[in-house]
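Lecture 7 notes: from sequence to structure.
We start with the chain below.
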Amino acid sequence: MRRVAEGLQYRIDAIVIGASAGGVDALSVLLPALPASLRASVFIVLHLPRERPSLLPEIFARKCALRVKEAEDKELAAPGTVYFAPPDYHLLLDKGPQLALSIDELVHFSRPSIDVLFESAADIYAERLMGIILTGANEDGAAGLASVHRRGGVTIVQEPDSAQVPLMVLSALQRTPVDFVLPLEQIAELLRTLASAEPAESALCQRGK
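Predicted structure tokens for the same chain:
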């Protein structure tokens, strides 16, 4: 696995991560593994109640080595930055690459939707994209990860037995072949290999301005 992963640093410009039930615990393992020198942008959809503000940027800014912020509409994607989709908005990637927020209809009863993020990111980044599906209780993300696979991106699914709620990862595995099926600690190990030779602008997470 390490030999394969080491080559990814030359092709991964963006990472998309989708999670639902159990996702905070899963991300607490993965996000601290992202190296401070990572140049890829990281985009995350975690299903949360739509009517309440998200505390995810504040929570994870203390846990990782990259800048962490809530995504904003029309914002240019910055390298070495972790973006969380805000509650009740779909997060998409557009040419630029640029972030876009949408209030289109719910997908799999969810807004933000993992499928929406993954499909739009696959259109922009193609083979330079890594998609990761984590624990969750619905089928959101299966179609999106299939889009990442079709465009030549790297696909990773959490090993079902290690998922707090396995329905989301099982749905993704049933939909498309994937490159890696791994428990959280091994996904974290793979992410640690994505360090760039060029250090990120900041080695500390900070709340986005």
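Points to note: Residues 197-209 have pLDDT under 50 and may be disordered. The chain has one domain: 2-192.
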